[in-house]
Amino acid sequence: MIFSKILNRWYSNNKRELPWRQTNNPYFIWLSEIILQQTQVSQGLPYYMSFIEEFPTVFDLAKAEESKVLKLWQGLGYYSRARNLHVTAKYIVKVLNGQFPNNYKDLLKLKGVGDYTASAIASICFNEVTAVVDGNVYRVLSRYFGIDTPINSSKGAKEFKQLAQEIIDQKDPATFNQGIMEFGATQCKPQNPDCESCPFQSSCVAFDRKMIHQLPVKNKLNKASKKHFNFLVILSKDQKTILEKRQGKGIWQNLYQFPLIESKKELVHKEIIVALKDHEFLKGNIFEVSLFNETAILHKLTHQHLFTKFWIISVDEIKREGISVNDIHNYPVPILISNFIDDFNF
After folding, report:
1. Could you tell me which CATH number the domain at 2-214 has?
2. CA distances (Å), origin 320, targets 234, 243, 274, 285
3. Residues labelled as active-site residues
4. What are the 10-residue block averages of pLDDT along the chain, 346 residues in total?
5. In which residue ranges of the chain is CATH 3.90.79.10 found?
6. N or C: which terminus of the chain carries fewer CB neighbours within 10 A?
């Protein structure tokens, strides 16, 4: 199809030189694709370089401690990606003898690997004709073909996947898939796309109908819920503090944080004092409390907005096992906690 020929020609002239494009090793491709989920290349590239330096093979990643993987991932968000990455590495080493599956169907069975990632690995590493569909591809296809089906609907997912599969280059699926993702990322951008130099301008439905900024269409998501977090930064005279490992399911699973009090509304000084009197870490202890940030820090997650305060609590001693403040940087923490640690200058 002429679409794929034009796209492949554009890609050969305009592609960015990126390290994972110099290889078809499935470990490196898998690693790059997991990192780049929900992440732009400019942000993900340093993480990719750090991971391949620290874990040059899937065997190195598999034998690492989870805390080390999470620490290296710190700041990227969506931490389930890192946990799944680690679980899958161990599975590939222990069950598959270090060999990645060589086809879309079997790649899809790996934890943390969905349709997009399986298609990327299968096409780039094994030349399987299976089309990728990510945010960039949705945008290119919806604009070029003038499709207003919501991309975050089950109907949209099926429709766009089928369309991408119809137009993919049958002889060179790897170049086509990388090309259409690159085209969406650098040419057909969400805002201010470069339509004037676009090789598809003459046949693009959205350009012809002046619908560039109306496509793609997304269904409105539920409004994010609000939560109030009060982190207790307990500091003793011998320079110890307390970090807790988050248990159970959740976005910050297995990361560390200061003891937390959740509240239905923003707490003021006298209210936090009342809440602390019977707190398990402070009961029977004399303490002083000060507020680090007068204005609550707003931390936006996909479905939650966290309004956060950090309360500095000074005590003579911590009546349980604490950690040295000098070691606090060794623990994997959410970016919200990491930013505070930097600002507080531990």
Report:
1. 1.10.340.30
2. 12, 12, 21, 12
3. 33
4. 90 95 95 92 96 97 96 91 96 97 96 95 97 96 96 94 96 96 96 94 95 92 87 92 86 90 90 82 78 91 89 85 90 92 87
5. 225-344
6. N
